[in-house]
Design goal:
Strand content: 35-45%
Helix content: under 10%
Number of strands: 17
Distance between the termini: 46 Å
Number of helices: 1
Order of helices and strands: HEEEEEEEEEEEEEEEEE
Organism: Sporothrix stenoceras
Largest sheet: 6 strands, antiparallel, barrel
Shape: globular
Radius of gyration: 16 Å
Keywords: Signal
Structural class: mainly beta
Protein name: Cytochrome p450
């Protein structure tokens, strides 16, 4: 079994070498990690996407946006279980600078991706749902973990083996500075889209 420190090192190395930010990693055995709950912000990094925050749209789907493009999007704060046991939930920021008049986001809504082998769609926008029972077909609301500042998804293949994957992508919306946050289950190249890495660390402000 790989020690946690070694696994983190591999993930960081993958972030530097892989265009997706982090490549999929397999390991045999389980890493026993202390369960913690944290309140964080999440940011996306990729080609021409330098640490953009995740927003909730009026359709309760997930978007990446610059501040100028965040009109009618809801800025959110995340409450995360770092071990993947519980769903990651979001709350609208009370100090949000975006226009929230059309938001239907329910406080405590769970983040989801379409990651089921039973789903026919392999490239679907991520989103938020107030009740897991009303999530779209093939959606999963658990299994999100952090290694250092990186967000990963746990896929259990057997009782003794887990696969850690990151297949978050951003698709250009046609509006400058606005992308849809997608989950690319198949990991295949998609039109008008780039792989992104999600992190809990904000971008470093450039100083002159």
């Amino acid at each position: 079994m790989w020690p946690t420190a070694a696994l983190v090192g591999l993930l960081v190395a993958g972030a530097a070498a892989s265009p997706a930010g982090i490549a999929s990693k397999d390991h045999t055995g389980r890493v026993v990690r202390k369960r913690t709950t944290e309140t964080v912000q999440l940011y996306a990094y990729g080609t021409n996407i330098s640490g953009l925050p995740i927003y909730a749209g009026s359709d309760n789907l997930a978007y990446l946006a610059t501040r100028d493009a965040a009109t009618n999007l809801t800025a959110i704060t995340w409450t995360i279980d770092t071990t993947g046991v519980d769903a990651w939930t979001v709350t609208a920021n009370s100090t949000s600078t975006s226009t929230n008049a059309t938001s239907s986001l329910t406080s405590g809504s769970s983040f989801y991706i379409i990651n089921s082998s039973d789903s026919s769609d392999s490239f679907v926008q991520a989103g938020f749902v107030s009740d897991a029972s009303s999530a779209p077909t093939g959606a999963t609301t658990t299994g999100f973990v952090t290694y250092g500042s990186y967000v990963m998804v746990v896929n259990e293949t057997t009782a003794d083996q887990q696969t850690y994957v990151s297949e978050f992508w951003a698709t250009a919306s046609g509006t400058d500075g606005l992308w849809t946050l997608m989950w690319n289950k198949a990991g295949t190249v998609q039109d008008n889209s780039v792989p992104v890495t999600l992190k809990t660390t904000a971008p470093v402000a450039l100083t002159s």
